[in-house]
Fold:
Amino acid sequence: MRQIPDAYKKVPMMFRSPIPGRSQLQYLDKDKKKAREAQDVEKWVSEWTDKSQLIPEENARDVETETFQAKSYQVSWRFVTNGGQDDGIVRPVIGASGIPFYPGSSMKGAFRQACEQAEQLGEIPEGTCNIYCGNETDITPGCLRFEGAYPTNDWREGLLDLVHPQQGWQVITPDTNKKPNGESAYAQISLDRPTLRFAISSAKPLSSQQWEQIWQIWEKAIASGLGSKVSGGYGQINQTSHRILYKAKLKGQGQAAKLIDETGEFRPNIFRAALRGHALRIFGGLTDESTAQNLVQHLFGGIQGNEPTVGLLGFQFQPSQLEIESFGSGQYAQPTYDVKGELIWFLTRPIADPNQERRLKNLVARLMQFAMIFGGFGKSWRRVDHRIFFEEYYEDTYKALIGCHWQWLDKSTKRRNVKVGRTEKIAEFIDRVRDTAREWIQCQNQPLNENQWASDWREAWHPRNVQVWGRVAEDMDDSVAVHWFHKSYQQRIQGIQSEGSIYKSSVTGKLGQISLIWHRMYPVILVKKNPEDPKQPIVKNTCRYLELITIFPDNSKECDRFLEFLHTHPENFQLLWGE
Amino acid sequence: MGWKSYELDRAAQKLVLAARERDSKSLNQSYKMRMAVAYGLERFWGEHLRLAGKEKNKSIFWKETWDALQKIMKNAGVTIPNDRVNPDNTQQIQSMSEKLWKLSLEDQRVTLAVLTQLCDCIVWWTQRYKGGKNETDS
Structure:
């Protein structure tokens, strides 16, 4: 047989050693990015998809017979399962012809769980589960065969999924020039909005009522989310069987996340990241570091001490409108999103104590309101959207896209969530957020340790660590502070005052260093009593905004001078909260 | 031509016992090894380097298995490369990869068949010995 010259250079990534220089799938190589070379995982994916096939159309249709049925469901965002075949990279099981699939064994597990639950709730007769799935104690087989699912749409696009864990960087580390360990981006493989066709067969013919029941149980099962990372927004079908804690309609615009190939993607997990970070900030101001971190882990899940936990909270975002576009030109071109939709936070498992559930409901609502009042979601959430509030900035198109802008969407959402319409209300709101968090800590039997709050963290929310300043802006052109981020806030007048500037200092941050200031233009919405129907207050939009500055002083010279300047009440800025 | 025993089963038993003695938890690698065979020699060989930095005992299990394979194949007259490689040295890694893929297709196939059998034996012994030590750990 003929030898292939340089065979080792032609070997597909899958068959190479999972080590540097050969095939490191999870790791993203900065040098390769700079040199515009494909990452190992990109090559791996293209080698996979090049040779793979799609499900032929005749096998993609839903089917109903007495012994075999198949139904299709669309996942609203990404779907991730870990086949467990490769260490170091999360990727689906890849079946015949290179088609990824959801194994029948996983399907059976999810079905049995939902079936047992329905039995306990008395929704289906006792014993149903044993008939369908088999009796585990005396080892009799069930009548159903779970055949798993295949994606029937073209699943080959957008497989590469970048994950950036960055809580430590965003909240804790004072020196943000150095990223903490384990917070660099890594790659995983997930399917982007797949249509999954699930198939079940039966050993004996079943009536149409029985099949109906089977699919009802299955719909319950998938409404809890499919695959892994469901509390991170993955694997959600357009319905949930979980207990809903909070619901709101939102709209937002900002900078979209970039996939490895630089295309933009709106990633709903920005909501989770924001709430998780805020929860950590608030808890960090009320109790010691490790208690705060444990509380957040319990709520949102995570990996601490190598023990992965699933959090209490899961979420789902159903976009009703989503546009991905591009802004800016040349190397400044950035993908952007413009999105409307409904955000739901739900309980991933029941809480026995109704008191606790009520407290958690309050906590989630407060955290959402907190996120909306002081910042936004996703990239550049600490800044106002310059396209709206500093249009002139982009007269020269070679400028980076900055900021995002989020708003409450419909009337009922506004009625429930607009907590501040005047600057005077801010302090009351923050105190209420902290009270709600205190109640949660106490009902979790965790220590309230206000003397030992996480004072080492950059953004712990404690009156000694943070100040909130605010004013009312008449309209969108009336943002004052936005200019301070780009040029001096105080001009030099010889002999009287020196120039004051936070531009490019530690206060405003720069590329690779997180700023100490959040700046938000929160739309003023009035919620007034309705004399005709006290249950339906009148919601009135205005063109005004609360211009809010949240600052975490770092004792630098620039920061101290800037605070001194704020104390002169420029344009009516008032200290609203903090010492 | 007489029958010659290469004692794969005995070699496997030795490997499993040694791994168990070091760290009974590393025994789970046996199943991964069996699975990795499907991806060929290079991938199998490279696994010990991937684990070298973070999980030493697992890494040793893979490497000892490779060493055993090399010895068995040598008895059968096939030379399998087994250079000393530093996981941080890309050049050494690539040169080992090159040697592995330079083996004649026939040798690769025979080696993979032997490795498959060796790994089956390792899994068999693992199933027998697994719960034995530090059972309370789990």
